[in-house]
Each structure stands twice: as structure tokens, then as C-alpha cells.
Amino acid sequence: MNDDRKAVPSVEEWAAYIRGDASVQERAAYMEDLLLENEQALELYMQALELVEAELPVLPRPERFTEMVMTRIGESEAKVVHMEARDDRRRWYEHRLFHYAIAACLTLIFLSAGWFDKLSPGPEHVKKHAGEASFSEELVKVTTGWIDRLKP
């Protein structure tokens, strides 16, 4: 592909494309893709369409044309080939029940090994800190003291 093909076509080239001239037929696919991707190309196309609007043939019955297009769209939807339904059965290790069973087994193993006992510090730790104020109480005291100093 050369640079000439990659350039945005001029209004005259778009007009030739609209008329269906043979000079631009080799670039027709490129120009159609360009209309979808490039806003400047679309603007030039619209300008060219306004220029050649008088030369274009008028549809004798536009309603009939619309009906024919809608009928063809309906036919194309009817021709859609559905893929074969695949087997949606899950493997045994993908079932929820399998995951729940594994989780229950691990929980029982951890309980019997005493791992959960090691997570909490025990009653001795609670007694040691019973006389101290909690962090939130200290924070409330500091905040109220700060607010009291701001008051006149």
C-alpha cells in the first residue's frame, strides 16, 4: 500500500465514489472502512453527498424500499446458524459442594491441631489490659480537649 491510498480522499473522490465511477472502485473497500473510522473523511463524504445530491436518482416508492430492507434483515436473522449446545456439566472439582467439603475438612483439622487457640491471646492478656483505657477513649479525650481549647 502506498501513501496515496492511506490519504483521506478529497471531496471530488468522494463524489466519484458516490456516483460509482470506475476510477475509485479499487479503493471502495478502503473508503468504506475510512468512513467508519475517520471523522474528517465522514465530513468530506457528507459534503460530496450534498454536491451530487441532484444527480442521484430518486426512489419511486421509499416506503416499499424500507419494507424490503426490513424483510431482508428479518431473513438474515432467521439464517443465523446456532452452534451446537456443548455439555455444560461441570467437573467434580468445580462444584460448590466440593469446595464446602474441603473448607469443612480444613476447619476440622485446624480445630483439632489447636491453631485457632493460638490466634487469640487468651484470658491472661485481657486481664493485663483491663485497667488501661482503650485507644478510642484516648482519641475522644484528645479531640474534646482540642475542641474545648477552640471555644472562646
From TrEMBL:
Keyword Transmembrane helix: yes
Swiss-Prot/TrEMBL keywords: Membrane, Transmembrane, Transmembrane helix
Transmembrane segments: 97-116
The protein, known as: Uncharacterized protein
Native organism: Paenibacillus albilobatus
Top-level taxonomy: Bacteria, Bacillati, Bacillota, Bacilli, Bacillales
